[in-house]
Here is the input.
Amino acid sequence: MADKTLEGRRAVVTGSNSGIGLGIARAFAAAGADVVINSFTDRPEDHELARDLAAEFGVAVRYIPADMSRGEDCRRLIAEAEGCDILVNNAGIQFVSPLEDFPVERWDAIIAINLTSAFHTTAAALPAMRAGGWGRIINVASAHGLTASPFKSAYVAAKHGIVGLSKVTALEAAGSGVTCNAICPGYVLTPIVEGQIPDQMKTHNMSREDVIAKVMLARQPSGQFVTAEQIGGTAVFLCSPAADQVTGTTISVDGGWTAL
Here is the structure.
C-alpha cells in the first residue's frame, strides 16, 4: 500500500476527469488525500468516476463541474470544495495555427483556460491556505513554458505566463507555509495523444513506431513518453515535507527536452 502522506488533506485538481489531471488525482488519492476532480461537463460518468476513485482508494472524492473559461466558475469551484489544502491548476486546451491566421476566439479561450483560470482559483484558495499555515499550489505548465515551438502562440504564451504566475505566487506566499511551483511536462501519453497517432500515421505515411519517434518525440531525447503517473508522483513529492523549501521554481519532467 502507498504511504498515506497526504491523509487529512483535500486536493482540488482542475481538468481532472482524464489525462494528466486524472493521473495527479489518482496519485493524491493513493497518498490518502481527499480529492475534488473537475471538468466542464456534468455527465453521470463524471460523478461515477469520482465514486470509483473513492472506492478504490478509500478516500472522499467529489466531482464538481466548472467551466475554467469563466472566472466566476473558477472561484465557485474553490468555494464548493469546502476546503482546499492542495490546488493543482491543470486545465488546458491547445490549438495550432500560424500567428496571422490564429482565430481570435481560440486565442481568448486558451488564455482563459490555460492561464487566467489559475489566477482565479489561486486568488480564491490562497487566503485559507495562509490562515491554516500550510498549502501547496501546483501549476501544470509545459516544456512550452520554458521554450517555444512554431504555430502554438497562445499555448506557449499561456504556459510562459503560468511559470511567471507561479513565481509571483511563491513570493507573495513566502514564509506562510504555502508553496507554489510549476511542473513542466514534455510529451505525455494521454488518451488524447494516443488518439492522435492513427491520424499522424496517415498524414505522414509512417508506421506507429516512426510517428512516435520521428514526429511526436522528435524533441524528447529520452525517446519515451512521460506518463501521467510520473506527473502524479512529482505532484505528491511537491506536497511532501521534503519539498517544504521548494517554491517559486519549475520542475521539468520532459525526457531531456529543455536540456537541448
